[in-house]
Amino acid sequence: MKMNLIILLLSLLSCSILSHLLANPNSIVDFNFPAVFNFGDSNSDTGEISAGLGVHLSLPYGCTYFHKSSSRTCDGRLVIDFLMDAMGLPFLNPYLNAIGAPSFRNGCNFAASGCTVLPATAQSNCPFSFGIQVSQFLQFKAEVLRLQSETKELDKYLPPEDYFNKGLYMFDIGQNDLRVDYDSMPLDQVLAFIQTILAEFEAGIKANRILVPQKLYEEGARNIWVHNTGPHGCLAQIIAKYGTDPSKHDEHGCLSSHNQAAKIFNLQLHERCKKLQSQYSEANITYTNIFAIKFDLIVNCSRYGFKQPIMACCGYGGPPLNNDIMCSQTKVLNGRSVTAKACSNSAEYVSWDGVHLTEAANRYISTQILSGKFSDPPFSSKMPSLLNLEF
Ligand SMILES: *[C@@H]1O[C@H](CO)[C@@H](O)[C@H](O)[C@H]1NC(C)=O
Ligand SMILES: *[C@@H]1O[C@H](CO)[C@@H](O)[C@H](O)[C@H]1NC(C)=O
C-alpha cells in the first residue's frame, strides 16, 4: 500500500541521518541543485490541482506577493518557492500546466492540493495521490529523454539528462492522510493506520509493485529530501472539525490527538529514511523536521514577529478560529450572504486560511530549513550536537 513508501522513506531517513553523522560529522551540503522534482500536497502545490481539475482559486489567494490568483493555497509564496529562490532557480512549474509553453528546464512539480499518500477514492479531493505522482514523474522523464533524442529545439524547456541525476527530489506529503477522527480510534488502530500510510509511501506505484525509493534510485535520483508532516492539530480547520472542547487541547490550544498522530508518523518516517540511507549509500537522503519548525513558530510566535498563532487571517467568524467560512467563499448565514475575507495584516498571522500558512510563516520556515539545523543529517558548516537533533 502507499503507506509503505512513507514507511520506507521514514526508515531511510532516520538510518541515514545517524550513520551520516557518525561517518561524516562535518558534512556540508551545497544547497545548489540544477533542478527540483517535487511530490506532495497543498504545502507545495504551485498550480497542479488548478490545472488538473480546473479549479480557480480567487483573490484574496495570491494577494500578498503575486497580486493575482497564483493557484497556490496561500496569500503569497510557499516554502518551495522560497527554496527555489534560494537556489537561484525560477518557481517550479506544475506538471499539468499546459498553457504558455511552460519551462521544465529546472524541474517539475507533481504536488497537488488535497492529495494523499493512500490511493484516492471517489470521495477524495485530489485524484493525484502519491503513487500517481511518481508514475507521472516516470512518464515525464521518459518523454523528456525521448524528445531530446529527436530534436534540439526543445532544449530550453527540458532538463538535460544529467539533471535527473544531479537534481533534488523533494517529498512533502502525508498531512491529508492523517486527517481522521482519532477519538473513535484506539491507539493500536492509529498505529496500524500510520503503518499502512507509510507502507504505501514505500510501495507507491502499485500497479507494477514497484518500491518507490528503489525505482527512483534506479532512475538516477541521488539527492532526496523528505519533509516530515507538521503539527496539523494546530490548524484552525482541524480544531473546528475535530474538537473545540478545551479538554482535547494542549496548553497551546492545539488538538493533542492530531499532533500525537503526526509525531508517531514522523518518528516512523524518520526510521524509514534512515533505513533507506543505509540501503542506498550512494544517495544522500535528508530528513527535515518541519514539525519542530512549525510547532516552535506557533508556540513562540511573538518571538518571531507574529501575533496570531492559530486564528485564520482569511476567514469568517472572528476569534478564536475565524474559520466558520473558508477563505474567499460566500455562504448564507442567518439569512445574510457573507464572504470570508482576508485580514489586513497577514504578516502577523501564522495561519492564512485555517489550513494553509501565510507567506510570512512560509518565509520564516524556509529560513529554518536552510539553516540545516532541523535536518538529519544537518547540513550547516558547524557540527551540531547530536543531542540537539530532534527525532
Ligand atoms: C552526499 O553528500 C556528501 C557530503 O555530505 C558529498 O560529499 C557527496 O558528494 C554527496 N553525494 C551525492 C551523490 O550527491
Ligand atoms: C519556544 O522557545 C523556547 C525558548 O527558546 C524553547 O526552549 C522551546 O523549545 C520553544 N518551543 C518549541 C515548541 O519549540
UniProtKB/TrEMBL annotation:
Gene3D superfamilies: SGNH hydrolase. Keywords: Glycoprotein, Hydrolase, Signal. One of its GO terms (molecular function) is hydrolase activity, acting on ester bonds. The keyword Flavoprotein does not apply. It comes from the Eukaryota. Belongs to the 'GDSL' lipolytic enzyme family. Residues 1-23 form the signal peptide. The keyword Glycoprotein applies. This is Uncharacterized protein. Pfam families: Lipase_GDSL.
